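User: Predict the complex.
Assistant: Input components as received:
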Amino acid sequence: MDELLNAVKFDEKGLVCAIAQDAASGRVLMVAWMNAEALRKTAETGFAHYYSRSRRKQWMKGEESGHTQKVHELRLDCDGDAVVMLISQNGGIACHTGRESCFYRRWNGSAWETADAVLKDEAEIYGHTHP
Amino acid sequence: MDELLNAVKFDEKGLVCAIAQDAASGRVLMVAWMNAEALRKTAETGFAHYYSRSRRKQWMKGEESGHTQKVHELRLDCDGDAVVMLISQNGGIACHTGRESCFYRRWNGSAWETADAVLKDEAEIYGHTHP
C-alpha cells in the first residue's frame, strides 16, 4: 500500500480531507478526516474509515449506527491533500442527526435555514443521543 | 453577515473547508479553504473566494485564469466546519492542471491512475506554468 499512501500529502497532524459523495445521487454527504491507517483500511476493505479528531481514533463509518459507506471509487486531488469517495450509503443516512447529508443547512441570503428533513431520530439510530 | 459567520466553526487557523461541486454534473471539482473574509465575499458577490494557505491571502477563484465559479447554493454541515457550494464553473476547468476537476487521479487497487484528460494547457491558462 506504499503506492496508495505515498501520493498523499498528509497535513502536520497526519490527516487528509475525505469527502463522501453518493454514487447514485451525486450528493455530497459528509466531509471528515483520514489518517494513513484509515485510508489504507478504506482501500483494503472497500468501506469508508475515518479518523476522529475529537475521539483521537480511527473508526469505520457505521460501526455504531449501521450506516456504513461502500466505496465504489476513490479519487485524489492534484495537490494530494483531499480524497473523494463515490459511495453507497447504507440506510440512506450519513449524518448523525439522522439526515441524508450533513450539509442540510442552506444559506438563504440572511440566515442558514434547515433545508432537509430528519429521516430517523438520533435516539433511534444510536439508542441514545450522540455525544 | 453575523448570521453567516457565527454558525461557522473556523479552525485554529481561522479556516473552514470549502467544496466546489458542479451544479449541473454534480462532480466535485475542488476542495480549498476559506477564512471568514473569503466566505463573506463568496456570499456577498456570488462568486467563490478562497484563502490560500501558501500565499497567505484571500483570492477570488479565476481572478488569474478566468475560471471563476458562480455560486448557486451554499450549504453548511452539521458541525459547521465545512461548506459545499453548488457552482457553475466558467470554462469548464477548475484545476490548475487544466482539467475539469482537481480529483483526476483514481485508485485502481494498486496505483493512482490519471483518469481525466487535460482540456487546456497550463501555459495557455496562465501564460506561464503554475508556481
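The longest strand of chain B covers residues 69-76.
Let me know if you want any component modeled separately.
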